[in-house]
Batch of 2 targets.
Target 1
Amino acid sequence: MKVWYKIVEAWVPIILLICLALPGVSRSEQNLPFKRTETREPCDSFDPLRQPFFGETHVHTNFSFDAFAFSINNDPFDAYAFARFQKELELPPPIPSEPERTARIRKPLDFTAVTDHAELFGEMQICTRSSPDTPGIDSLECQLMREAGLNMPPPDPFNVTAIWSLNPILRNFTARSLVMCEGPGVDCPGAAVSMWLDIQDAAEAFYDRSSECKFTTFVAYEYTAQPSFDNLHRNVIFRNDKVPESPISNVTTGGPFIPVLWQKLREECLEAGTGCDVLTIPHNPNLSGSTREDPAGRMFPDPRSVDEARERAFFEPLVEIIQHKGASECRFDRIARMGVQTVDELCTFEQVLPDTLSTTAPSVPIDEFPTRDMVRNALKDGMALAPNFDGINPFKYGLIGSTDDHNGAPGSTLEPDFQGHGGTNDAPLARMIDKFYLGPGGLAVVWAEENSRDSIFEAMLRKEAYGTSGTRPVVRFFGGWEYDTRPNKLCNQVNRVEIGYEKGVPMGSDLPPLVDGTNPRFLVAAMKDPGYPAVLPGQEPIRGTPLQRIQIVKGWVDSDGVTHEKVVNVAGNANNRAKVKKKTCEPKGAGFKELCTVYEDKDFDPTQPAFYYARVLENPTCRWSTFACKAAGVDPFSRQKKCQRQAAVANAKAVEAGEIEEGDTPFNNCCLNEKNDPFLDQTLQERAWTSPIWYVPEE
Amino acid sequence: MKRMINAFSRVIRAPALQFLFIGGLIFTANMWWKVLTQDNASRSSTEELVITAVHIEQLRRDWTGQTGFPPTPQQERALIEAAIDQEVLYREALALGLDRRDIAIRRRLIQIARFVAEGSEQDEEALYRNPEQDDEAMYQKALELRLDRSDLVVRRRLVTMMGLILERVPTEQAPSLFTDAELENYLKRHPERFIEPWHVQFTHVYLGEDRRGARAKEDALRLLDKLRAQHIKPADAPGLGDPFLLGYHFLWKSRAEIEQLLGPRFASSITELQVGVWLGPIPSSYGWHLVWVHATRPAGMQALDEVRNQVLQAVLKERRKQRLRDKLRQLRTRYSVRVEYPVNSRGKLSGRDSDG
């Protein structure tokens, strides 16, 4: 006993000293479930069981070369003001002689990361934000960009973006800055740093460091690797304000070499000793095409080494499962009655026809579509590949949504309000309808204790996140071995979320170690979006759509290394025959304000690696294209003959108004429906996808 | 000679001629008087500016197209005022020669002229001409055809440019332009824009409509009685209701935030609730709630330092608008404005309100 006292006596002062020496850690901050890497007030609204925060991780402003060329005048400050304060922003008019359009978000976002194209920061700074005596400002590239931005053709902004992106973005094995940077006295790298500092200033100006924690910004940019129009883009999101001096772009890495991006991020951020931390979020695997070396798809290629697998798993906890340029969960062609490694008919959702970013690329037949360009297949393949890479699953992605808006208007995801995401490229209406397969995109939602950078960033790292297709349902998903599967038991417990965490893991995690002889159980609960007020003259409030059902998607690998999937309805009613009123698009039919269930996988095989994620479906509502077609006098719900007649009239009017060329027929798209189109329809079912929970068999 | 003088004096004595002569003197005197007293600035003429009936009809059509309803007399008056302002800006821009100096307008005119020339035989020659010379030729042709006066795109650009020139308050000097007193004054005049809203902390018990159907409100009322009768504390109460995914304790949320999470009906009720008692049932988008408000934080004005940037931007914007308004009023005096209201089928002036 006495010896014990002596030891305590010796150690207590030492421990006290250590505690006192810990810098900047207040008493209440000592037991935070996440690491605080910045100075700020702790949040009033803190919940150890976590709260849902709705945000945007992919938006462009006039700092991006393409947004500027499409006559956008909104900068990162405007974008953050739009998201946080619901500031009204102007969008370029459909025709230059008309007044500007207005955009306003109906509900503020909780967090936003502005992600402009880093490859051309220097050139953009010189051409559009510098004093008239700056070297390089009179270069041809600058003249073209400034004139394109004026919205007074010529030049065609599309051509200008093509010229600007050829060397820095589109080449297969190299990347260079624009020729203007080689001019005498032209300092593109210095100018890039200047723009990068402004981006950081904007993020700081709108980050709420007070205890009110109303809004979080992230310093970020987009790495725009696009070899031959195959999409390999990533959004690079920094944890706090300790960031590299200059962003690492496709030009810095000398071409589309993602492992080089990760390596340089390691050197200049993680190992810089400044407290810098970073993650990268890829998007549009559906448009990443394929090559001979990677026939399954270019976004998720077989790693070339164990290191590469490890780096991918380390840097990329999340992927965008939906955005403006289509959904990437899975793909099913209902005319061919075939899917890409799936028979899930709900996979007609928001599919784009080609498999690359090129606007002239042909649509890809369903049986030739690169399989891993759909995330569900990549998730399956990741488990199959793990044994080849020291057990590291290279495709262990959590799921979020975003928009890729190029108007400086983050979070613009509601179908009735959609005005396009690409400035003058999406105006007038005829031009937007031409891009029928694109859509408003979705939102990123994270479960975090408080609305601050560290809390949200760590939520992203552990993948406790889900994506929505644009609305804001609240969704929880837990997995474990001990949940009570008796009907209406766990779901009726007021502390079900606490039990969810205690007896299992949340979305994005691995199941706890196997309890022999039991099947995994999954608690999933969802509440509908409560709806939106009108915020601009002429708008109507939008009522929250009732939920239709919840499904669980399982993927697994059998003993032969072959992957499988199955989709089951676990709550709600798939046959509620809810629909919309054809005249007004008002949703009608029964649905649910909330759903909850505990699902047990009775086919569980403990030798087979598996993942499970939840997909929550709302009742059908009208797609943006239906609203737009109706506004142009074409009724997508009418019989084909009538619809086509109306489309012909609308096309003729647009030709006469000079909006489209003679012979273009964009309004014919309005007559596409489930009978004549492989994917689209007049209505859609908005949905949410949770990050998966993985089962990894013990060795 | 004598005969000539006689004839002459007879002519001069003719009253008609005398009257003509006097009239001529008066006429000349008047002219000189005008010249002497005329302000230099207005010597460029009080041009006539007419808003034609056709123009007004077009304004009405555009408005109806955009909003779905025809303009009220008030709205129409505003539209006409705006049209006059635009015309004034347009003409002032032309007077300053802005159209000659702007590269965007030049390119636009070249494009239109090229379009107009398309199809004519001279086009073949164009292939062999020097493109720069060709551009200049096209530009001159555009001016010849007065395309710069008829093109709406050019017009709109000139109106915008002129507006920017008139309203310009140099932004680089902005922070030093306004004293703290001026900024505070703006804050006082527009409290609603910078108010720190009311916040509330509450616990709630939820009774779901999906779960309980038509009984939900009844159940809520019964539970409310129980909570009150048994003095159940907020910490122990949520377990007596249904599970709620957003939790049971809301810490310092504003009314707007509550509306975003729980819907408008809940938000409008919660602002009226007293502290420290069980109240309800309050409806939300999901069901019924019994609420215990722990504390509220009243709305308050934010200090200038917290919102300095926003106030500065707002004052700047206000100053610009004021400048533009003042300048436009000044410029309008150079024009004699006439508005021709359309006459409707019954021969009456249509759309003109009683006080003109």
Target 2
Amino acid sequence: MTHLFSEEEWNDYIEGRIDDETRDRIEAHIIGCLSCWEFHERMATATRALVVCGAGMRVAFALQDRRLNAGLRAVFAKINEAEAAKLDQPLRAIQQRLDALAAVMAPMCGSQTATKALRAAAQVSPACSLELVSEDNWTPFLTSLKTIADVMCGETGARLVWERGQS
Amino acid sequence: MDDRHAIENYLLTGAEEDFCALFEAVYPRVRRYFLLRGMEVGEAEELAQDVMVIVYQRAGEVREKEFFTGWLFKVAKNELARFWRRRQARRRIAEMEPLDDELAEMLLTEMEVAGSSDFVEWVSYLDPAERDIIILRFVEELSYEELAVALAIPIGTVKWRLFNAKKKLAPIIKASLPTAARRFN
């Protein structure tokens, strides 16, 4: 039931956001159209009721200071957690790559020897220790490991280690 | 400090202390939006906190500060959709932690308010999209422009949806509030 007017025009009129010309046209129409008058009254009443009850909702759901502070603490805890996870990410990625190398070597020379080989390769590389192996010194570390693996696991084993380390 | 200043300051500086002022201004609104969308208090708070983390991390993406509130509720709406998807995927019974007395009392108060509210009853007759627009317009007082950003629709569609939601509510409001309706006239 919108007669000569669009839903947008009716909405703007009821919410008092309409331009003067359209407002005059709507008012000239509803004076002579009972159904539009009644429709306008229903819509205006509904709008006013929503405005009043909406304000009531804002008061009803007001938050106590203590809950607000608890919320703020929780947000900062989440932010710190997210930032820590972001910092840990490269370390975890390196650890996964080291684990993958150990897993390739273990069937060929045993898991303890594989771990020792990784440590030895790190010591003779710019990383100096397994704990300091990073993305930046990965290639020289892998080159050292390949040399060690060549002796321990043979040429094919060394190539496998190299390929795994590069993936 | 009013809400507008809190928003402007944080968007300008991105400083932690300005975030605290922003949090005070907008967290209760986001939490209330989730509660009015039918979530339980604990879930609403958890989700509102997730929204505030996104605000902290990504508020710099908001190009025009006038549309911050629209962007905020767009984020809230997306988080709500993600929540329902996750919940549907899980469909398992979780063990609930016992409530402390303070929270239990607060929950009771809010549930009583919500349960007895005409507004909550009225919006329960609407579908989710209509409910969104009515809550954001009449409780959160978003402008048409902000609604367009929040709901990712053109302003013309905002007006059309508002009109149709109100048209649907008009007889319900009239029937449910015969005496109060006179008060609104």
